[in-house]
Amino acid sequence: MSPKFQAIRGMKDLLADELPAWQRVEAAARELFADYGYREMRVPLVEQAELFQRSIGEHTDIVEKEMYTFDDRGGERLSLRPEATAGLVRAAIEHGLLHNQKQRLWTSGAMFRHERPQQGRYRQFHQIDCEAFGFAGPDIDAEVIQVSARLWRKLGIRDVRLSVNSLGTPESRRVYRARLVAWFSGREGDLDADSRRRLGTNPLRILDSKNPAMRALIEEAPRLLDHLDGESRAHFDRFLDLLAASGIEAEVDPRLVRGLDYYTRTVFEWRTSALGSQDAVCSGGRYDGLVEQLGGEPTPAIGWALGIERIVGLLQAAGTVGPPTAPAIYVVLSGERAERAGLALAERLRDALPGAGVVANMDGGSFKAQLKRADRSGAELAVILGDDEAARGTAAVKWLRTEAPQQEWPWDELPRRLAAALGREVTTGRNDG
Ligand code: ATP
Ligand code: MG
Questions:
Q1: Secondary structure letter of residue 109 according to DSSP
Q2: Does 168 sit in the ligand 1 pocket, CB within 6 Å?
């Protein structure tokens, strides 16, 4: 017996019925980025493992336990990308995009993390990613958030709230880190196993703990915001002011630290209460040191990534996902002569009505069976061609969703009359008429 194959755990098939919601998100994002002057870029799904280790950080969840890393046949150590920023930065340096230039870029695609799969958390998931390189001021921090806020408006998403924080410079973070270690070390007995481990490796991540038993302790811990250097404080205050001036509400959350090492100063996260425990829908921040750390010239940068699965989940929860698109016309072909003429006729209809959707019946079938298929296709009307009509050079037109009476029209008039019936413009191309 041949084996029964299954999708890899945590990697989802997206069936045709689910795609309209995805396409809506993707189309809205594409339009939106154009409106703000962000240009699309695409980078490979696979990079040297070291790129991610160096940028995301050795002691992060992603690098410690979530990366898909393997040796290829040439013995090179590679990883499937767990996020997009590292690859974009690598590519921007490699192609000299950051030399005396500012860049507003976006990308989207599959990311891979070996996590415990659950609703809203997958091993292959998809992000839309926005990055701005070469801008140092707080104004771009506000702009990238405007982009995301407009996307929610475009998609009719209401149930999201913005949290913001500042992580300061690497220097002020080092000072804070030492204070935090001292503070938690005095309370080691109250830490869970994960946090105790992080105390030695990545103490800021303790603040990010998802263990409810740790909440109270974390609330009392020293706050990074109280240890900011003057410039970071001014940057953060101006950023908050610009957000307010843009009409974007934000809550300052001193515990927001983000899971990746490369962030500096501004960090933020859009959260929702509509998706259970997977509440982060879009997160990002400033990463002024990363380009230099990866071998480029010092270049300030900021970006965010949203999880498409979670945004689609929000659309579904709100019940605002429209039905899958259906073709407008189903061509019923009954008889050998009709079939021969019908394939050519269907092509003429597609020439005249691009975008309408013209599905021709295939594999024969009784007239009744074909009409049933026409109905199931969701088409508004059936163009019916039997051998008699084919001999006359006409086709019958039957409305599938209304009681309007059936018509019989000559082939030459079909495009124009169908266009009128469907409320469309007819395209008179080379092949029409
Ligand atoms: P979380 O706290 O939920 O693990 P994260 O901080 O790891 O999120 P980021 O690395 O900032 O997430 O990725 C940006 C966005 O990508 C998240 O806000 C989320 O919407 C989405 N995302 C992250 N991991 C997954 C996953 N495994 N499955 C689906 N979406 C994800
Ligand atoms: Mg995560």
A1: E
A2: no
d(CA 126, CA 311): 10
For ligand 1, atom 12, the nearest C-alpha belongs to 283
Which atom of ligand 1 lies at the shortest distance from residue 281's CA? 20
pLDDT in tens, 84-128: 999 999 999 999 999 999 999 999 999 999 999 999 999 999 999
Q: Which residues contact 327 (CB under 8 A, 6 or more apart)?
A: 356, 357, 358, 359, 377, 378, 379
Helices (H) and strands (E) in the chain, counts: 15, 16
Ligand showing the shortest atom-to-Cα distance for residue 108: 1
Beta carbon of 122 within 6 Å of any ligand 1 atom: yes
Question: 146 φ, ψ to 5°?
Answer: -55, -40
CA of 70 to the centre of ligand 2 (A): 21
Mutate to test the pocket of ligand 1, among 68, 125, 269 (most ligand atoms within 8 A of CB): 125
CA of 121 relative to ligand 2 center, distance in Å: 9
Q: pLDDT at position 429, please?
A: 53
Contacts of 381 (CB under 8 A, 6+ apart): 328, 329, 330, 397, 398, 399, 400, 401, 418, 421, 422
Between CA 70 and CA 18 the distance in angstroms is 32
Q: Determine the Cα–Cα distance for residues 40 and 59; give it in Å rounded to an integer.
A: 31
Band (430; pLDDT cuts 50, 70, 90) = very low
Give the highest mean pLDDT range of 143-157, 165-179, 200-214, 249-263.
143-157
C-alpha dihedral (164, 299, 60, 46), degrees to nearest 10: 120
